[in-house]
Amino acid sequence: MYERSARFSHGPHQQISTQTRIKTINDSIESVLHFWFSELSNELSPKSQAELWYAATVQQDKEIEDKFAYLIERAGSEQLSDWQNTPKGSLALIILLDQMPRNIHRGSAQAFAYDALALQYCLDGIDKGHDQSLCLIERCFYYHPLEHSESLTMQNLCLLKFNELEDEYFLDEHIKVIQNSLQFAKEHADIIAKFGHFPHRNKVLKRKSSAEEMEYLKTAKRFGQ
């Protein structure tokens, strides 16, 4: 009787444990997304978030490391792959693997260490339709692994996705964000079309630059790296 009672009493405890785990996962996902996007309004982040995204200070880079290095490491070793089951979870993985390493490891090869995995999650998410469930600014970042890829096929897919956004949104403030994102995407695609890779990564990735690339690098954008 005792063994039978113990066995049946395990159910509620297991259910509570599962509920606690789900809440912990959701809280972790929310912490990543809220830090990156802040409070969303009309499908956009506050304009002040642009500093974090495109002109982060040393202090902001350090804050990202302090708050999220552990999650980045876990995501990079695929311990958070179950996050990929939901649109928000998938987006959080992309932020952890594609965006935050560029802050924490700015100017080093480690900045690009998780690009392949981020791209894998991005493509899988597109296949599942995850991106379609996200708001505008979230979708802009969802496609960044495509933009960061050194594959022209991925670059062209990125352009396609931003062009699709142009067809879906009509408010001036939305169009401005999309056009800005599309301009950056075109710049990245043009570099890959010309060189087959990003020359500004050559030094940290220990790739030899051609004479043409050396000349290009004298005035080239480095996109934060």
What are the main properties of this structure?
disordered N terminus; Serine Threonine Protein Phosphatase 5, Tetratricopeptide repeat; DUF924; 10 helices; TPR-like_helical_dom_sf; mainly alpha; DUF924 domain-containing protein; single chain
CATH architectural designation? Alpha Horseshoe
Mean pLDDT over the residues: 93
Q: How many β-strand runs? A: 0
CATH structural fold name:
Serine Threonine Protein Phosphatase 5, Tetratricopeptide repeat
Count of structural domains: 1
Q: From the helix content, strand content and strand pairing, which structural class follows?
A: mainly alpha
Distance between the termini: 66 Å
Radius of gyration equals 20 Å
CATH class: Mainly Alpha
SS strand fraction: under 5%
Please bin the fraction of helical residues: 55-70%
- Give me the CATH superfamily: Tetratricopeptide repeat domain
InterPro entries: DUF924 (IPR010323), TPR-like_helical_dom_sf (IPR011990)
Organism: Thalassotalea litorea
Protein name: DUF924 domain-containing protein
Describe the SSE topology.
Layout: H1 2-37, H2 49-54, H3 58-76, H4 87-104, H5 115-128, H6 136-142, H7 144-148, H8 152-168, H9 172-195, H10 211-217
InterPro entries: DUF924, TPR-like_helical_dom_sf
Protein name: DUF924 domain-containing protein
Organism: Thalassotalea litorea
Description:
The protein has helices at residues 2-37, 49-54, 58-76, 87-104, 115-128, 136-142, 144-148, 152-168, 172-195, 211-217. By secondary structure, it is mostly helical. It has a single domain, classed as Tetratricopeptide repeat domain (Serine Threonine Protein Phosphatase 5, Tetratricopeptide repeat, Alpha Horseshoe). The N and C termini lie far apart (66 Å).
